[in-house]
Design goal:
twelve-stranded mixed sheet, Aminopeptidase, 11 helices, 2 domains, 326 residues
């Protein structure tokens, strides 16, 4: 009989073999460059960081020789405040074995997670799962999770790259505090296919404001390391946000950065501004010692995918975002 138990940080060592054998690790597509051992060590460190953070919850299934399965989730305070009800994120659902063994273990954990979320006041639970992890996707769907979006992840090695720095009629620069209101207005009108706007439980105005506040926090350095803007005649028309994964640098031996959000004002689309801010972001990352830059876009956003490919990015991974209303 499978009995999930609460996992404390001091028991994580018993989960290390399970985590090392998990086939869907973050940055697994860089195993040839970093080495499988480094990817394993990074994944263990990432999970440790999660379960040691304030507000985490974790359950595991103990076997005679260590962990058989592990689940980690968090109540999202910022999201809960904006949505008006408890929101959470299922970070990891990991199990060992063949299809049926993994299904049984993950199912026992998922049932316990949902019961705990209900007690914690989490009503809106989200997860992002590798598109290759069919067992977890099938299980989540069976338990009422709905797919909200799909993400294509592109990667570019910028170590020896050379990117434009001058753009006719444009000033591409770091954002300033006085840009925030213009940036927020672009954010309110730029997103359509993301998991917030695709969710029928979230009103469009709420989803729009989530991105506006997200960008404000990015400009203030709370959730991004830099915001690059393209300005024309004193008006900000496009932006790209930059985030460096310092933990990945520590374990993999090379810097990885992510262009998190890119958007252009409605009246300026189709004029090459997103390309200019993307190049501006790549130049910023190079100046800060990053070797590899990733960027993601929704499956439906074909123009963005074509833009990134034309800038030299290559498709390396895909994932699905799902959510359940508890």
């Amino acid at each position: 009989m499978v009995n999930p138990e609460p996992l404390s940080p001091d028991c994580l060592e018993a989960c290390v073999p399970l985590l090392k054998s998990h086939p869907f690790k973050p940055y697994a597509h860089y195993a040839d460059r970093a080495g499988e051992v480094s990817i394993e060590q990074f994944f263990v460190a990432r999970v440790r960081t999660s379960i040691e953070a304030d507000g985490y919850s974790a359950l595991w299934v103990r076997g005679p020789d260590g962990a058989l399965a592990l689940a980690v989730w968090t109540r999202l305070g910022w999201d809960s405040e904006r949505l008006g009800y408890g929101a959470g994120w299922l970070h990891y659902l990991v199990a060992a074995g063949d299809y049926q063994q993994r299904w049984d273990l993950e199912e026992s954990l998922l049932k316990a997670v949902l019961e705990n979320c209900a007690r914690q006041g989490i009503r809106h639970l989200s997860a992002r799962v590798s598109a290759l992890d069919l067992i977890t996707i099938h299980l989540l769907e069976q338990y009422g999770f709905a797919i909200m979006d799909g993400i294509l992840t592109f990667s570019l090695d910028i170590h020896d790259g050379c990117f434009p720095t001058e753009f006719e009629g444009l000033s591409v620069r770091l954002s300033q505090l006085e840009d925030i209101e213009q940036i927020k207005e672009i954010a309110r009108t730029s997103y359509v296919h993301d998991r917030f706007h695709s969710d029928p439980l979230i009103p469009k105005e709420v989803a729009d404001n989530i991105y506006a506040e997200w960008m404000e926090n990015s400009c203030l350095g709370k959730v991004a390391d830099a915001v690059i803007v393209a300005e024309r005649d004193g008006c900000v028309l496009s932006y790209a946000t930059c985030k460096v994964d310092h933990q990945a640098t520590e374990y993999l031996g090379f810097g990885i950065g992510t262009i998190v959000l890119v958007a252009t004002a409605t009246e300026a689309r189709g004029q090459g501004l997103a390309r200019a801010t993307t190049y501006g972001a790549l130049n910023w990352f190079r100046q800060h010692g990053v070797q590899i830059v990733e960027v993601g876009t929704q499956l439906q956003n074909i123009p963005a995918a074509r833009l990134y490919e034309s800038c030299g990015f290559k498709l390396v991974a895909s994932s699905l975002s799902l959510r359940k209303w508890i």
